């Protein structure tokens, strides 16, 4: 029996299996497209022909496929095995899979990888896990090969909540950067020259997040030097400048819309953090 099986050898699954091999573990691998296992077999992994074989080859099986539909296609019951699902999933998909696993006498850990493949196995990587706490402790040594282990609770969907929340923040940042880059190019400047200023500005603005987080948790949005009313007046300028430059405004319109709605709903004097309340409660009339 191997120490661990890895199912799915795309960019991420291959990095995960590689980190386990680097850690000296006996690793069984499986991938739908057989050729992708070859580099790992050359490094000492054992390849098996079917997903069912892989799930029975070790006490713990790490699954990392494109999405939940793919996971559902390949899963087979393997009583006694701990299933660690590192496939990007919704919380509900993880909960349903945990129920399925329980029905197969398997234990389940949902996971969310906060890393890109080259970061796996380095101190920069971390992975959220949720689900069976005993299984996590039993396999902690293996899981630490990927990066920091962040156990976030017994609800199998909790890791996905946090994974998707962090990805949401990331896409907000990238979306903002991409629109800014288009605006800079339309203004006749190379993005490379302005990027250091953007990075410095984003870093400075990230410093506001702890206070915003506290305001969102407490519901008290009164402390601010940059009230929503001021921001709602300034925001249309970036939309106008974008339109004048012939840019699509799809990435930046929703924030302007929400700012105007917040003012209309009587939150003009509040901090920007109030927008989180408005999103959550659906209090702003559409
Ligand atoms: P890839 O596209 O590189 O690999 C996808 C994997 O899924 C391949 O092994 C592919 O097999 C397999 N697959 C897809 N559909 C099926 C199916 N129907 N049946 C069996 N196998 C299937 O993706 P990544 O490895 O990059 O991503 C894997 C997961 O990791 C995703 O959920 C992703 O969101 C997550 N992730 C990825 C990160 C990244 O930066 N790459 C970062 C953090 C998380 P085949 O080779 O046969 O096509």
From TrEMBL:
- Answer whether the UniProt record assigns the keyword Oxidoreductase to this protein: yes
**Start and end residues of each 6-phosphogluconate dehydrogenase NADP-binding domain:** 3-152
What family does the entry list?
Answer: Belongs to the HIBADH-related family.
Q: What top-level branch of life does the organism fall under? A: Bacteria
Q: Which key words are in the record?
A: Oxidoreductase
**Primary enzyme class:** oxidoreductase
State the protein's name. Answer: NAD(P)-dependent oxidoreductase
List, alphabetically, the PANTHER family matched. CYTOKINE-LIKE NUCLEAR FACTOR N-PAC, OXIDOREDUCTASE GLYR1-RELATED
Domain (NADPH-dependent reductive aminase-like C-terminal): residue spans on this chain = 155-280
InterPro entries in the cross-refs: 6PGD_dom2, 6PGDH_NADP-bd, HIBADH-related, HIBADH-related_NP60_sf, NAD(P)-bd_dom_sf, RedAm-like_C
An annotated Gene Ontology molecular function: oxidoreductase activity
* SUPFAM superfamilies given in the database record: NAD(P)-binding Rossmann-fold domains
**Could you tell me the EC number(s) of this protein?**
1.1.-.-
